[in-house]
Amino acid sequence: MPETRDIMIQTEMLMTTTLEKARKDPESMKAKILAVARKIFGEYGFHGTTMRMIAHEVGIDISTLHYHWGEKKDLYEAAIIDINNDLREKFIETEKVIHGRPLEERMAIGIDMLTDYLFLHPEISNLVLYRYFGKIRHEELADLKVPEFTIDSVRSMGLKQDKEHIQFSMVAVLTIMNSIHSFISGESFFRTMIRLDRGEYIDLVKRAIKRIFIPSFTQDGGMIE
To answer: What does the pLDDT average to over 166-178?
Structure first.
């Protein structure tokens, strides 16, 4: 329906503008609300989070929250797009560091950098996994706005991109990323199982992921171009 689509486009433009303002001024109320929303949505998911929970954590009343961000779905979509922007920036930073190095080095450095970054921002992994495996009423809107970085990762790692191998290479990259996300989201559970402090746990996760996956990419007949 044309009218419905027009409303959706207007809402998206308004939300994007609000997000841009929040990112440009990290000390603003919009930015403070967004930071809290990312963490709470990451911990409880879309359905488990209420606007009152976010408002209480920020220390504002509910009307102030609605004034800055509108409805819950708008704030949720902004949180998803915000983590997407952060991930894009981190991938660009990582690509600059690994560019031109041998594949094994590219993978080792990339895994270290991304894992360290995501452990510093666990809400990113939580929100990514919620988005993959959870169901929200407005997920079709969020999905339209959140491109994946699988192809970019395949290119930067120098993996096979011909028609025969591209899907396999993409799944291989997703396997690594989802492994990292799972170890981050399940940290409290996994650390209890293996009885490590946080620093030891992070180091072990990075070593295990590199030991398991790097040989699959670098051995003879692997996925190198």
So the answer is: 82
